[in-house]
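Memo to structure team: turn this sequence into C-alpha coordinates by end of day. - J.P.
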Amino acid sequence: LLLVSLILILFFSLRNDESNNLSKEFGPSNSSAVGDNNTDLTTIPLASPSPSTAPTTSLIPSASPTTPMPSASPTTSTMPSGSPTAIADRVLNCVQTVVGNELYIENSVSFYRGDVHCLKLEDDDGQEEKEAYFGYTWTGQFGLFVNNSSVWTIAGSTVDNADRWIFQNDGNLVLDDVDSNPIWKSGSENNFDGRLKMSFERIWVETTMGYSPWSEPTPPSFENDYPDPNGALQYYAYYYPWYYRDDWSRHGYQDEPLLGKYGTDEVAVAEQHIEWALQTGITSWVVSWWGNSSLAMRHFTVGMMNAPSLDKIKFCMLYETTILDDRGSWYNGTKEEALYDDLKIIRDEFFDHPSYLKINGRPVVIFYITRSRMPFQEGFDGLSVLANMRERLGSDIYFIADEPFFNTFYESPEENGNAFANGTQVFDAYTTYNMFRDRVVQEGETATDYQLREGMPIWQSWAEQLPLFPNVMPQYYDFRGHKPLLGNSADFMIQLREMACLPRTNFNGAPHIMFITSFNEWWEGTQIEPEDGSPENWNNYGFQFMETLAAFKKEVDSLGTFWCEEKDDKKDKGKDN
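Reply from structure team:
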Protein backbone atom coordinates (compact mmCIF):
# COMPACT_ATOMS: atom_id res chain seq x y z
CA LEU A 1 0.00 0.00 0.00
CA LEU A 2 2.85 2.38 0.79
CA LEU A 3 4.41 1.67 -2.62
CA VAL A 4 1.11 2.31 -4.46
CA SER A 5 0.61 5.58 -2.55
CA LEU A 6 4.08 6.79 -3.50
CA ILE A 7 3.44 6.00 -7.20
CA LEU A 8 0.12 7.91 -7.19
CA ILE A 9 1.70 10.95 -5.52
CA LEU A 10 4.49 10.98 -8.12
CA PHE A 11 2.02 10.63 -11.02
CA PHE A 12 -0.16 13.62 -9.99
CA SER A 13 2.92 15.72 -9.26
CA LEU A 14 4.18 15.15 -12.83
CA ARG A 15 0.75 16.02 -14.29
CA ASN A 16 0.74 19.38 -12.46
CA ASP A 17 4.24 20.15 -13.70
CA GLU A 18 3.17 19.36 -17.28
CA SER A 19 0.14 21.67 -17.03
CA ASN A 20 2.35 24.46 -15.73
CA ASN A 21 4.77 23.97 -18.61
CA LEU A 22 1.92 24.38 -21.10
CA SER A 23 0.75 27.63 -19.53
CA LYS A 24 4.33 29.00 -19.61
CA GLU A 25 4.61 28.23 -23.32
CA PHE A 26 1.27 29.70 -24.35
CA GLY A 27 0.32 32.09 -21.58
CA PRO A 28 -3.34 32.74 -20.67
CA SER A 29 -5.94 31.08 -22.88
CA ASN A 30 -7.65 33.03 -25.62
CA SER A 31 -10.64 31.46 -27.34
CA SER A 32 -11.04 34.05 -30.09
CA ALA A 33 -11.38 32.52 -33.54
CA VAL A 34 -9.18 33.20 -36.53
CA GLY A 35 -10.06 33.85 -40.13
CA ASP A 36 -10.25 37.63 -40.51
CA ASN A 37 -9.32 39.34 -43.75
CA ASN A 38 -6.04 40.81 -42.53
CA THR A 39 -3.96 38.16 -44.28
CA ASP A 40 -0.19 38.57 -44.21
CA LEU A 41 0.51 38.90 -47.93
CA THR A 42 4.00 37.43 -47.61
CA THR A 43 2.56 34.07 -46.56
CA ILE A 44 0.27 33.53 -49.52
CA PRO A 45 1.43 30.52 -51.54
CA LEU A 46 2.21 30.64 -55.22
CA ALA A 47 0.93 28.45 -57.97
CA SER A 48 3.20 25.80 -59.40
CA PRO A 49 3.63 26.12 -63.17
CA SER A 50 3.67 23.08 -65.38
CA PRO A 51 4.56 23.05 -69.08
CA SER A 52 1.98 20.39 -69.81
CA THR A 53 -0.94 20.97 -67.47
CA ALA A 54 -2.77 23.94 -66.02
CA PRO A 55 -1.72 24.88 -62.47
CA THR A 56 -4.20 24.02 -59.80
CA THR A 57 -3.37 26.37 -56.93
CA SER A 58 -4.08 30.01 -56.45
CA LEU A 59 -2.34 33.11 -55.27
CA ILE A 60 -5.51 34.46 -53.72
CA PRO A 61 -6.65 33.18 -50.31
CA SER A 62 -10.18 31.92 -49.91
CA ALA A 63 -12.64 33.27 -47.37
CA SER A 64 -14.11 29.78 -47.06
CA PRO A 65 -11.24 27.38 -47.66
CA THR A 66 -11.75 23.72 -48.38
CA THR A 67 -9.31 21.03 -47.37
CA PRO A 68 -9.22 18.07 -49.77
CA MET A 69 -6.48 15.54 -48.92
CA PRO A 70 -4.70 12.99 -51.09
CA SER A 71 -5.46 9.98 -48.90
CA ALA A 72 -7.73 11.03 -46.06
CA SER A 73 -10.91 12.95 -45.32
CA PRO A 74 -9.78 15.86 -43.17
CA THR A 75 -12.05 18.24 -41.39
CA THR A 76 -11.72 21.81 -40.24
CA SER A 77 -13.12 22.04 -36.75
CA THR A 78 -13.03 23.79 -33.44
CA MET A 79 -11.05 22.10 -30.68
CA PRO A 80 -12.92 19.91 -28.20
CA SER A 81 -14.97 21.56 -25.48
CA GLY A 82 -12.95 22.27 -22.42
CA SER A 83 -9.96 23.60 -24.40
CA PRO A 84 -7.23 24.21 -23.49
CA THR A 85 -7.73 21.89 -20.48
CA ALA A 86 -8.07 18.84 -22.71
CA ILE A 87 -4.71 19.57 -24.29
CA ALA A 88 -3.12 20.53 -21.01
CA ASP A 89 -3.62 16.96 -19.81
CA ARG A 90 -0.38 16.21 -21.65
CA VAL A 91 2.67 18.34 -22.35
CA LEU A 92 2.90 20.17 -25.68
CA ASN A 93 6.57 20.53 -26.35
CA CYS A 94 7.45 23.60 -28.43
CA VAL A 95 10.38 22.15 -30.35
CA GLN A 96 10.63 25.49 -32.16
CA THR A 97 9.33 28.91 -31.09
CA VAL A 98 9.40 31.99 -33.32
CA VAL A 99 8.13 35.48 -32.58
CA GLY A 100 6.89 36.82 -35.91
CA ASN A 101 4.49 36.09 -38.78
CA GLU A 102 5.87 32.78 -40.07
CA LEU A 103 8.42 30.06 -39.40
CA TYR A 104 10.31 27.45 -41.39
CA ILE A 105 10.30 23.78 -40.30
CA GLU A 106 13.41 21.71 -40.97
CA ASN A 107 13.07 18.66 -43.19
CA SER A 108 14.16 15.07 -42.47
CA VAL A 109 13.44 15.47 -38.74
CA SER A 110 10.84 13.29 -37.05
CA PHE A 111 8.35 14.75 -34.57
CA TYR A 112 6.12 12.82 -32.18
CA ARG A 113 2.91 13.28 -30.21
CA GLY A 114 3.14 16.49 -28.26
CA ASP A 115 5.92 17.95 -30.45
CA VAL A 116 4.63 21.21 -31.91
CA HIS A 117 6.05 24.26 -33.66
CA CYS A 118 5.00 27.48 -31.97
CA LEU A 119 4.49 30.93 -33.47
CA LYS A 120 3.79 34.01 -31.38
CA LEU A 121 2.94 37.60 -32.16
CA GLU A 122 3.37 40.27 -29.50
CA ASP A 123 1.95 43.76 -29.20
CA ASP A 124 4.02 46.87 -28.53
CA ASP A 125 4.10 46.11 -24.80
CA GLY A 126 5.57 42.65 -25.31
CA GLN A 127 2.28 40.94 -24.48
CA GLU A 128 1.34 37.96 -26.65
CA GLU A 129 -1.58 38.75 -28.93
CA LYS A 130 -1.54 35.60 -31.09
CA GLU A 131 -0.32 32.08 -30.41
CA ALA A 132 -0.21 29.31 -33.00
CA TYR A 133 1.13 25.79 -33.08
CA PHE A 134 1.39 23.08 -35.68
CA GLY A 135 1.78 19.38 -34.98
CA TYR A 136 0.18 16.31 -33.41
CA THR A 137 -1.51 16.98 -30.06
CA TRP A 138 -2.29 14.48 -27.31
CA THR A 139 -6.01 14.94 -28.06
CA GLY A 140 -5.57 13.04 -31.31
CA GLN A 141 -5.64 16.09 -33.55
CA PHE A 142 -3.04 16.90 -36.15
CA GLY A 143 -3.07 20.33 -37.73
CA LEU A 144 -2.62 24.07 -37.32
CA PHE A 145 -4.18 25.83 -34.32
CA VAL A 146 -4.35 29.55 -33.51
CA ASN A 147 -5.45 30.85 -30.12
CA ASN A 148 -6.86 27.38 -29.31
CA SER A 149 -9.05 27.26 -32.41
CA SER A 150 -8.17 25.11 -35.40
CA VAL A 151 -7.29 26.60 -38.74
CA TRP A 152 -6.88 23.18 -40.32
CA THR A 153 -6.91 19.63 -38.93
CA ILE A 154 -7.05 16.04 -40.10
CA ALA A 155 -9.89 14.07 -38.56
CA GLY A 156 -8.89 12.13 -35.47
CA SER A 157 -9.97 8.78 -36.94
CA THR A 158 -7.46 9.23 -39.74
CA VAL A 159 -4.54 9.73 -37.38
CA ASP A 160 -5.49 7.46 -34.48
CA ASN A 161 -2.60 5.14 -35.25
CA ALA A 162 -0.08 7.89 -36.01
CA ASP A 163 3.18 7.70 -34.12
CA ARG A 164 5.23 10.47 -35.73
CA TRP A 165 5.24 13.00 -38.55
CA ILE A 166 8.07 14.10 -40.77
CA PHE A 167 8.65 16.61 -43.54
CA GLN A 168 10.72 14.56 -45.96
CA ASN A 169 13.56 16.04 -47.99
CA ASP A 170 11.53 15.35 -51.15
CA GLY A 171 8.95 17.95 -50.07
CA ASN A 172 6.30 15.55 -48.76
CA LEU A 173 4.66 15.89 -45.35
CA VAL A 174 3.96 12.36 -44.02
CA LEU A 175 2.30 10.82 -40.95
CA ASP A 176 3.61 7.36 -40.04
CA ASP A 177 2.33 4.66 -37.70
CA VAL A 178 4.49 2.83 -35.15
CA ASP A 179 5.83 0.55 -37.89
CA SER A 180 6.87 3.55 -40.05
CA ASN A 181 4.08 2.91 -42.53
CA PRO A 182 2.59 6.12 -43.98
CA ILE A 183 -1.07 6.68 -43.09
CA TRP A 184 -1.38 10.19 -44.61
CA LYS A 185 0.62 12.23 -47.15
CA SER A 186 0.43 15.80 -48.41
CA GLY A 187 1.18 14.56 -51.92
CA SER A 188 3.89 17.16 -52.52
CA GLU A 189 6.80 14.82 -53.23
CA ASN A 190 9.37 15.49 -55.98
CA ASN A 191 10.02 18.98 -54.60
CA PHE A 192 13.49 18.47 -53.21
CA ASP A 193 14.06 22.19 -52.75
CA GLY A 194 10.82 22.54 -50.78
CA ARG A 195 10.46 24.01 -47.30
CA LEU A 196 7.60 23.51 -44.90
CA LYS A 197 6.39 26.88 -43.62
CA MET A 198 3.78 27.94 -41.10
CA SER A 199 1.93 31.17 -40.51
CA PHE A 200 -1.14 32.17 -38.52
CA GLU A 201 -3.26 31.53 -41.62
CA ARG A 202 -1.87 28.36 -43.20
CA ILE A 203 0.73 25.62 -43.42
CA TRP A 204 2.36 25.07 -46.80
CA VAL A 205 5.28 23.75 -48.83
CA GLU A 206 7.28 26.45 -50.56
CA THR A 207 10.02 25.80 -53.11
CA THR A 208 12.99 28.07 -53.66
CA MET A 209 11.29 29.24 -56.86
CA GLY A 210 8.25 30.27 -54.83
CA TYR A 211 5.89 27.55 -56.04
CA SER A 212 3.52 25.97 -53.55
CA PRO A 213 2.85 22.30 -54.38
CA TRP A 214 0.78 21.90 -51.20
CA SER A 215 -1.03 24.26 -48.85
CA GLU A 216 -3.70 24.02 -46.19
CA PRO A 217 -6.21 25.57 -46.02
CA THR A 218 -6.42 24.96 -49.74
CA PRO A 219 -6.94 28.09 -51.88
CA PRO A 220 -9.75 28.01 -54.44
CA SER A 221 -9.25 26.05 -57.64
CA PHE A 222 -7.37 27.38 -60.65
CA GLU A 223 -10.36 27.83 -62.95
CA ASN A 224 -12.66 29.34 -60.35
CA ASP A 225 -10.15 31.89 -59.17
CA TYR A 226 -9.65 33.76 -62.42
CA PRO A 227 -11.17 37.23 -62.27
CA ASP A 228 -13.71 37.89 -65.01
CA PRO A 229 -11.75 39.00 -68.13
CA ASN A 230 -14.80 40.97 -69.22
CA GLY A 231 -15.27 42.66 -65.86
CA ALA A 232 -15.95 46.30 -65.18
CA LEU A 233 -12.27 47.14 -65.77
CA GLN A 234 -9.57 45.48 -67.83
CA TYR A 235 -5.88 45.60 -66.94
CA TYR A 236 -3.08 45.55 -69.51
CA ALA A 237 0.45 45.18 -68.15
CA TYR A 238 3.66 46.20 -69.90
CA TYR A 239 5.84 43.13 -70.37
CA TYR A 240 9.57 43.01 -71.11
CA PRO A 241 10.99 39.73 -72.48
CA TRP A 242 14.62 40.92 -72.60
CA TYR A 243 16.28 39.09 -69.70
CA TYR A 244 19.09 36.54 -70.00
CA ARG A 245 19.23 33.67 -67.50
CA ASP A 246 21.80 34.54 -64.75
CA ASP A 247 23.02 37.66 -66.57
CA TRP A 248 21.12 40.82 -65.75
CA SER A 249 24.19 43.03 -65.93
CA ARG A 250 23.02 45.18 -68.84
CA HIS A 251 21.56 47.75 -66.43
CA GLY A 252 21.46 48.19 -62.68
CA TYR A 253 18.33 47.26 -60.74
CA GLN A 254 17.27 47.48 -57.11
CA ASP A 255 15.30 44.36 -56.13
CA GLU A 256 15.90 40.68 -56.79
CA PRO A 257 13.04 38.79 -58.51
CA LEU A 258 11.45 35.91 -56.64
CA LEU A 259 12.27 33.73 -59.67
CA GLY A 260 15.90 34.82 -59.55
CA LYS A 261 17.73 36.09 -62.62
CA TYR A 262 15.40 34.28 -64.98
CA GLY A 263 15.53 34.05 -68.76
CA THR A 264 12.49 35.27 -70.67
CA ASP A 265 13.20 32.71 -73.37
CA GLU A 266 12.12 29.91 -70.99
CA VAL A 267 8.64 28.43 -71.30
CA ALA A 268 8.46 27.63 -67.56
CA VAL A 269 9.09 31.30 -66.72
CA ALA A 270 6.42 32.37 -69.21
CA GLU A 271 3.97 29.90 -67.67
CA GLN A 272 4.55 31.29 -64.18
CA HIS A 273 4.16 34.86 -65.43
CA ILE A 274 0.88 33.97 -67.13
CA GLU A 275 -0.37 32.25 -63.99
CA TRP A 276 0.44 35.25 -61.82
CA ALA A 277 -1.14 37.59 -64.36
CA LEU A 278 -4.38 35.62 -64.50
CA GLN A 279 -4.65 35.34 -60.74
CA THR A 280 -3.96 39.04 -60.38
CA GLY A 281 -6.55 40.05 -62.97
CA ILE A 282 -4.27 41.12 -65.83
CA THR A 283 -6.00 40.32 -69.11
CA SER A 284 -3.32 41.30 -71.63
CA TRP A 285 0.43 41.73 -71.98
CA VAL A 286 1.69 44.86 -73.74
CA VAL A 287 4.98 43.59 -75.16
CA SER A 288 7.94 45.82 -75.92
CA TRP A 289 8.65 45.59 -79.69
CA TRP A 290 12.04 46.72 -81.03
CA GLY A 291 11.94 44.72 -84.27
CA ASN A 292 11.66 40.98 -84.77
CA SER A 293 15.43 40.51 -84.60
CA SER A 294 15.65 42.23 -81.21
CA LEU A 295 16.43 40.31 -78.02
CA ALA A 296 12.94 41.01 -76.71
CA MET A 297 11.20 39.49 -79.73
CA ARG A 298 13.57 36.52 -79.99
CA HIS A 299 12.84 35.68 -76.36
CA PHE A 300 9.11 36.35 -76.67
CA THR A 301 8.68 33.99 -79.62
CA VAL A 302 10.73 31.22 -77.98
CA GLY A 303 9.35 31.59 -74.45
CA MET A 304 5.91 33.20 -74.18
CA MET A 305 4.66 32.14 -77.61
CA ASN A 306 5.30 28.49 -76.72
CA ALA A 307 3.66 28.64 -73.30
CA PRO A 308 0.69 26.21 -73.11
CA SER A 309 -1.35 28.75 -71.12
CA LEU A 310 -0.96 31.59 -73.62
CA ASP A 311 -4.50 30.81 -74.78
CA LYS A 312 -5.70 32.14 -71.42
CA ILE A 313 -4.32 35.67 -71.83
CA LYS A 314 -4.07 38.26 -74.61
CA PHE A 315 -1.07 40.20 -75.84
CA CYS A 316 -0.38 43.17 -78.10
CA MET A 317 2.69 45.14 -79.17
CA LEU A 318 4.12 48.33 -77.71
CA TYR A 319 5.83 49.83 -80.73
CA GLU A 320 9.02 51.46 -79.40
CA THR A 321 9.05 54.54 -81.63
CA THR A 322 12.68 55.32 -80.83
CA ILE A 323 13.61 52.70 -83.44
CA LEU A 324 12.51 55.28 -86.04
CA ASP A 325 15.15 57.80 -84.93
CA ASP A 326 17.74 57.05 -87.63
CA ARG A 327 15.39 55.95 -90.38
CA GLY A 328 14.68 58.97 -92.51
CA SER A 329 12.36 61.93 -92.06
CA TRP A 330 8.65 62.57 -91.75
CA TYR A 331 9.11 65.44 -94.23
CA ASN A 332 10.07 63.25 -97.20
CA GLY A 333 8.02 60.18 -96.27
CA THR A 334 10.99 57.88 -95.51
CA LYS A 335 10.13 57.56 -91.83
CA GLU A 336 6.52 56.80 -92.71
CA GLU A 337 7.76 54.04 -95.00
CA ALA A 338 9.90 52.62 -92.17
CA LEU A 339 6.85 52.62 -89.91
CA TYR A 340 4.89 50.76 -92.56
CA ASP A 341 7.62 48.11 -92.88
CA ASP A 342 7.58 47.52 -89.11
CA LEU A 343 3.79 47.35 -88.84
CA LYS A 344 3.73 44.88 -91.71
CA ILE A 345 6.06 42.59 -89.74
CA ILE A 346 3.87 42.86 -86.66
CA ARG A 347 0.77 42.17 -88.78
CA ASP A 348 2.29 39.11 -90.45
CA GLU A 349 3.79 37.66 -87.28
CA PHE A 350 1.08 38.28 -84.71
CA PHE A 351 -2.30 39.66 -85.83
CA ASP A 352 -3.68 36.22 -86.74
CA HIS A 353 -2.63 34.65 -83.46
CA PRO A 354 -5.76 33.72 -81.46
CA SER A 355 -4.37 35.48 -78.37
CA TYR A 356 -3.56 38.77 -80.08
CA LEU A 357 -5.52 41.57 -78.42
CA LYS A 358 -8.35 43.17 -80.37
CA ILE A 359 -10.68 45.98 -79.37
CA ASN A 360 -14.01 45.89 -81.20
CA GLY A 361 -12.45 43.29 -83.50
CA ARG A 362 -9.49 45.54 -84.38
CA PRO A 363 -5.88 44.50 -83.62
CA VAL A 364 -4.22 46.82 -81.09
CA VAL A 365 -0.87 48.57 -81.51
CA ILE A 366 0.36 51.06 -78.91
CA PHE A 367 2.84 53.76 -79.91
CA TYR A 368 5.42 54.77 -77.28
CA ILE A 369 6.01 58.55 -76.75
CA THR A 370 4.24 59.74 -79.88
CA ARG A 371 4.67 63.30 -78.60
CA SER A 372 8.37 63.32 -79.58
CA ARG A 373 8.70 60.52 -82.17
CA MET A 374 5.52 61.05 -84.20
CA PRO A 375 5.26 64.87 -84.08
CA PHE A 376 2.08 65.40 -86.05
CA GLN A 377 1.58 68.56 -84.01
CA GLU A 378 4.35 70.12 -86.10
CA GLY A 379 2.18 70.18 -89.19
CA PHE A 380 2.16 66.57 -90.37
CA ASP A 381 -1.24 65.14 -91.21
CA GLY A 382 -1.53 62.39 -88.64
CA LEU A 383 -4.98 61.34 -89.78
CA SER A 384 -3.69 60.70 -93.30
CA VAL A 385 -0.60 58.83 -92.07
CA LEU A 386 -2.64 56.45 -89.91
CA ALA A 387 -5.37 56.00 -92.53
CA ASN A 388 -2.70 55.21 -95.11
CA MET A 389 -1.19 52.59 -92.78
CA ARG A 390 -4.52 50.85 -92.30
CA GLU A 391 -5.29 50.86 -96.02
CA ARG A 392 -1.88 49.59 -97.16
CA LEU A 393 -1.80 46.89 -94.48
CA GLY A 394 -5.39 45.83 -95.13
CA SER A 395 -6.01 45.91 -91.39
CA ASP A 396 -8.16 48.29 -89.37
CA ILE A 397 -5.59 48.71 -86.60
CA TYR A 398 -6.67 50.24 -83.29
CA PHE A 399 -3.90 52.77 -82.59
CA ILE A 400 -3.28 53.97 -79.03
CA ALA A 401 -0.89 56.90 -78.51
CA ASP A 402 1.32 57.56 -75.49
CA GLU A 403 0.86 61.31 -75.82
CA PRO A 404 -0.14 63.23 -72.64
CA PHE A 405 2.80 64.59 -70.67
CA PHE A 406 4.18 67.80 -69.23
CA ASN A 407 4.72 71.06 -71.19
CA THR A 408 2.20 73.15 -73.09
CA PHE A 409 1.48 70.96 -76.10
CA TYR A 410 0.99 67.74 -74.11
CA GLU A 411 -0.77 68.73 -70.88
CA SER A 412 -4.10 69.35 -72.62
CA PRO A 413 -5.44 68.12 -75.97
CA GLU A 414 -6.74 71.50 -77.18
CA GLU A 415 -3.52 72.62 -78.88
CA ASN A 416 -2.11 69.17 -79.55
CA GLY A 417 -1.85 68.05 -83.17
CA ASN A 418 -1.72 64.39 -82.12
CA ALA A 419 -5.05 64.84 -80.36
CA PHE A 420 -7.13 66.70 -82.95
CA ALA A 421 -6.60 67.53 -86.61
CA ASN A 422 -9.15 70.05 -87.84
CA GLY A 423 -11.40 69.05 -84.98
CA THR A 424 -11.13 65.31 -85.68
CA GLN A 425 -9.60 62.87 -83.22
CA VAL A 426 -6.29 61.51 -84.59
CA PHE A 427 -5.62 58.25 -82.68
CA ASP A 428 -8.27 55.79 -81.54
CA ALA A 429 -7.34 56.28 -77.88
CA TYR A 430 -4.65 57.73 -75.65
CA THR A 431 -2.62 56.59 -72.69
CA THR A 432 0.50 57.39 -70.72
CA TYR A 433 3.34 54.95 -70.23
CA ASN A 434 5.18 56.85 -67.53
CA MET A 435 4.63 60.37 -66.21
CA PHE A 436 7.94 60.44 -64.35
CA ARG A 437 9.90 63.71 -64.31
CA ASP A 438 12.87 63.73 -61.95
CA ARG A 439 13.03 67.43 -61.15
CA VAL A 440 9.55 67.57 -59.61
CA VAL A 441 9.93 64.44 -57.43
CA GLN A 442 9.86 65.31 -53.73
CA GLU A 443 12.23 63.53 -51.36
CA GLY A 444 10.72 60.41 -49.80
CA GLU A 445 7.32 60.61 -51.49
CA THR A 446 5.43 57.63 -52.82
CA ALA A 447 4.55 56.86 -56.41
CA THR A 448 0.90 57.56 -55.63
CA ASP A 449 1.70 60.96 -54.08
CA TYR A 450 3.59 61.87 -57.23
CA GLN A 451 1.08 60.45 -59.70
CA LEU A 452 -1.89 62.22 -58.14
CA ARG A 453 -0.12 65.55 -57.70
CA GLU A 454 1.73 65.79 -61.02
CA GLY A 455 -0.16 63.48 -63.34
CA MET A 456 -3.81 63.69 -62.33
CA PRO A 457 -4.49 67.22 -63.66
CA ILE A 458 -3.15 66.14 -67.06
CA TRP A 459 -5.10 62.88 -67.13
CA GLN A 460 -8.23 64.73 -66.09
CA SER A 461 -7.83 67.25 -68.92
CA TRP A 462 -7.39 64.57 -71.58
CA ALA A 463 -10.06 62.24 -70.19
CA GLU A 464 -12.70 64.97 -70.34
CA GLN A 465 -12.28 65.33 -74.12
CA LEU A 466 -10.86 62.06 -75.51
CA PRO A 467 -10.82 58.32 -74.74
CA LEU A 468 -7.98 58.01 -72.23
CA PHE A 469 -6.73 54.75 -70.74
CA PRO A 470 -4.60 55.87 -67.78
CA ASN A 471 -1.64 54.02 -66.32
CA VAL A 472 -0.90 53.14 -62.71
CA MET A 473 2.66 52.81 -61.43
CA PRO A 474 3.26 51.25 -57.98
CA GLN A 475 6.88 52.40 -57.54
CA TYR A 476 9.87 53.80 -59.44
CA TYR A 477 13.65 53.41 -59.05
CA ASP A 478 15.59 53.48 -62.31
CA PHE A 479 19.20 52.66 -63.18
CA ARG A 480 19.91 56.24 -64.28
CA GLY A 481 20.24 57.63 -60.77
CA HIS A 482 16.95 59.54 -60.67
CA LYS A 483 15.12 60.11 -57.41
CA PRO A 484 13.06 57.05 -56.41
CA LEU A 485 9.35 56.83 -55.68
CA LEU A 486 8.39 54.45 -52.89
CA GLY A 487 5.39 52.16 -52.99
CA ASN A 488 3.23 49.94 -50.77
CA SER A 489 -0.09 48.14 -51.02
CA ALA A 490 -2.25 50.75 -49.25
CA ASP A 491 -0.78 53.52 -51.38
CA PHE A 492 -1.27 51.51 -54.58
CA MET A 493 -4.93 50.92 -53.75
CA ILE A 494 -5.47 54.68 -53.47
CA GLN A 495 -3.91 55.19 -56.89
CA LEU A 496 -6.06 52.48 -58.47
CA ARG A 497 -9.22 53.97 -57.03
CA GLU A 498 -8.40 57.49 -58.22
CA MET A 499 -7.59 56.33 -61.75
CA ALA A 500 -10.85 54.40 -61.97
CA CYS A 501 -12.80 57.62 -61.42
CA LEU A 502 -11.45 59.47 -64.46
CA PRO A 503 -14.11 60.43 -67.05
CA ARG A 504 -14.81 58.06 -69.93
CA THR A 505 -15.27 60.09 -73.11
CA ASN A 506 -16.04 58.74 -76.61
CA PHE A 507 -15.05 55.17 -75.80
CA ASN A 508 -17.17 53.97 -78.73
CA GLY A 509 -17.61 50.46 -77.39
CA ALA A 510 -14.04 50.09 -76.08
CA PRO A 511 -13.66 48.50 -72.63
CA HIS A 512 -12.65 50.48 -69.58
CA ILE A 513 -8.88 49.88 -69.58
CA MET A 514 -6.14 50.60 -67.09
CA PHE A 515 -2.48 50.10 -68.02
CA ILE A 516 -0.03 48.70 -65.44
CA THR A 517 3.47 50.17 -65.60
CA SER A 518 4.77 47.53 -65.33
CA PHE A 519 4.74 43.78 -64.84
CA ASN A 520 8.51 43.31 -65.07
CA GLU A 521 10.43 46.45 -66.04
CA TRP A 522 13.13 45.83 -63.43
CA TRP A 523 15.56 48.37 -64.94
CA GLU A 524 13.21 51.22 -63.99
CA GLY A 525 11.88 49.56 -60.84
CA THR A 526 8.19 49.87 -61.77
CA GLN A 527 7.43 46.13 -61.62
CA ILE A 528 4.64 44.39 -59.75
CA GLU A 529 6.29 40.99 -60.27
CA PRO A 530 7.22 39.73 -56.78
CA GLU A 531 10.71 40.19 -55.38
CA ASP A 532 12.43 37.59 -53.20
CA GLY A 533 12.30 39.37 -49.84
CA SER A 534 16.07 39.70 -49.46
CA PRO A 535 17.09 42.30 -46.87
CA GLU A 536 19.38 43.85 -49.47
CA ASN A 537 16.40 44.77 -51.65
CA TRP A 538 15.29 48.38 -51.85
CA ASN A 539 11.60 47.65 -51.35
CA ASN A 540 10.46 44.36 -49.81
CA TYR A 541 6.99 44.41 -51.33
CA GLY A 542 6.67 40.66 -52.05
CA PHE A 543 3.22 40.04 -53.52
CA GLN A 544 1.71 43.27 -52.22
CA PHE A 545 1.13 44.95 -55.57
CA MET A 546 -0.28 41.84 -57.22
CA GLU A 547 -2.55 41.13 -54.27
CA THR A 548 -3.72 44.75 -54.19
CA LEU A 549 -4.59 44.71 -57.88
CA ALA A 550 -6.45 41.41 -57.48
CA ALA A 551 -8.42 42.73 -54.51
CA PHE A 552 -9.23 45.94 -56.36
CA LYS A 553 -10.48 44.09 -59.44
CA LYS A 554 -12.65 41.82 -57.33
CA GLU A 555 -14.15 44.86 -55.61
CA VAL A 556 -14.84 46.71 -58.87
CA ASP A 557 -16.31 43.69 -60.62
CA SER A 558 -18.70 42.97 -57.76
CA LEU A 559 -19.56 46.43 -56.45
CA GLY A 560 -18.57 48.88 -59.19
CA THR A 561 -16.71 52.12 -58.56
CA PHE A 562 -19.09 53.29 -55.83
CA TRP A 563 -16.44 55.55 -54.29
CA CYS A 564 -16.42 57.66 -57.47
CA GLU A 565 -20.05 58.61 -56.87
CA GLU A 566 -19.17 59.54 -53.29
CA LYS A 567 -16.39 61.78 -54.59
CA ASP A 568 -18.77 63.44 -57.05
CA ASP A 569 -21.30 64.05 -54.29
CA LYS A 570 -18.63 65.75 -52.17
CA LYS A 571 -17.62 67.93 -55.13
CA ASP A 572 -21.22 68.97 -55.75
CA LYS A 573 -21.70 69.82 -52.08
CA GLY A 574 -18.52 71.88 -52.18
CA LYS A 575 -19.80 73.85 -55.17
CA ASP A 576 -23.12 74.47 -53.44
CA ASN A 577 -21.31 75.80 -50.39
